[in-house]
Amino acid sequence: MNALLDLAAQQLRADLATAPGRVRQRLSDEGRAARCRTIAELRAAAKRSVPRPIFDYADGAAWDEVTARRNISAFEDVTLHPKALTDVSEIDLRTSVLGGEIALPIIAAPTGLTGLQHPEGEMAIARAAHAAGTITTLSTMASCTIEEVAAASDGRRWFQLYVMSDRGLVDSLLARAAEHGYEALMLTVDVQVAGVRERDVRNGFSVPPRISLKTLAQGVTHPRWSAGFVAHPRMVPANLGWEGSATATLASAVNRSFDPTVTWDDLADLRSRWKGPVIVKGVMRADDALRCVEHGADAIVVSNHGGRQLDGAAAAIEALPAIADAVSGRAEVYLDSGIRRGTDIVKALALGARAVLIGRALMYGLGAAGEAGARRAFSILEAELRVALALAGYPRAAEIGRDAVS
Ligand SMILES: Cc1cc2nc3c(=O)[nH]c(=O)nc-3n(C[C@H](O)[C@H](O)[C@H](O)COP(=O)(O)O)c2cc1C
User: Fold this and answer.
1) Which ranges carry the FMN hydroxy acid dehydrogenase domain (predicted)?
2) Is residue 85 part of a domain?
3) Which domain holds residue 131?
4) Is the residue at 59 inside a domain?
């Protein structure tokens, strides 16, 4: 009898220990997303929901992660100067980018291997961006194909290009993107070689992922993520023909495939071949921004890749004012790297950005609750931006200027 009681007590203890996990699992994605009130809470939820190496891949940055932290802390160093007694009963977040209106000045940044967070990957991000009334940018390194993402949503979409050594592959990517309605080409210029992300090195992060006892254990402790992964494994970039290739670290795969000889001549060449607008992403200096304009770029993204490339680089928000001044309206200027709050967006707009791009905020949302989580990332930032603009005394996002900050 005692033995039976002991057994029952053991079972009860085990049930109680796992109950929060089981209750969490029963919550719908919508429910899980709705419980997160900030991007920081989406991050915490993603950290619980996906295996550690997958979370670290999205959250991590280069070397000591100084620039990644600075991207965030530099926003704290920008001070807002609210304007009194303006009518803020209607807040207008609309702006135009590359000739078309978007409902809010937030665009989905290109992110590679997004499908590791959730099997819907870039398709979920595209649908969330469309629902928010804005644009999605598909990475060269995306987990979903150019065609899948085009079919997933009717929203505006841009294609981000890394120039690969295999120029035939680049040509075919451009042709597929043009054929499937990607209206702008975004050339990323800050991955001459792979940045060293030490969390990935420590975790043995690879493409395709190496299945070890440790990864199996991670899978068991993250059953919802594992169910998605097993049903729809998205293990390698989908557009590059890497399926079936041998396991390699992401850095070595990048260094093997990307072309480190890319120069301004390649920008000129792409400009002449791509019929639509060209955006250059990863510009951090005013002289480079001017050269982009001279080479016919329609837009520039002031970005340090979220601190994932050159650690020690300035925060993107620190680089923005000088670049906006130099470009002086001859190209559109956007900013990414470190956007976590609506006030960050107000500051970026005030310092000369027409819109911001968000990378990790969407990755966290996706990891936490799939497409519902990505939608939540947009809605959190939108709601914060509305309140921040009202309190700053600028009812129209497109009209906030340098006088609002110091
Ligand atoms: C997981 C992950 C993958 C990324 N992959 C790409 C990519 O394939 N191409 C690219 O141009 N930028 C890539 N980036 C950089 C983002 O486009 C963007 O510059 C950065 O995330 C902005 O900083 P934030 O994450 O603080 O918003 C990636 C970023 C993350 C977090």
Assistant:
1) 31-406
2) yes
3) 30-400
4) yes
Residue 63 within any structural domain of the chain? yes
Please report the atom of ligand 1 found closest to the CA of residue 303. 19
The H or E element spanning position 366 is: helix 360-392
> How remote is the CA of residue 337 from the centroid of ligand 1, in Å?
8
Domain for residue 263, yes or no? yes
Cα separation, 159 vs 136, in Å, equals 9
Q: How many A from CA of 172 to the centre of ligand 1?
A: 23
Answer whether 371's CB lies under 8 Å from 120's CB: yes
Q: Is the CB of 141 under 6 A from ligand 1?
A: yes
Domain count, the chain: 1
Two tokens, residue 163: 């120039």
Q: Which two tokens stand for residue 294?
A: 């001279």
Query: pLDDT tens track of the chain, all 406 residues?
Result: 444 445 444 544 554 455 555 455 457 999 999 999 999 999 999 999 999 999 999 999 999 999 999 999 999 999 999 999 999 999 999 999 999 999 999 999 999 999 999 999 999 999 999 999 999 999 999 999 999 999 999 999 999 999 999 999 999 999 999 999 999 999 999 999 999 999 999 999 999 888 788 888 888 999 999 999 889 999 899 999 998 888 999 999 999 999 999 999 999 999 999 999 999 999 999 999 999 999 999 999 999 999 999 999 999 999 999 999 999 999 999 999 999 999 999 999 999 999 999 999 999 999 999 999 999 999 999 999 999 999 999 999 999 999 999 9
Among protein residues, the one with the nearest Cα to ligand 1's atom 2 is 111
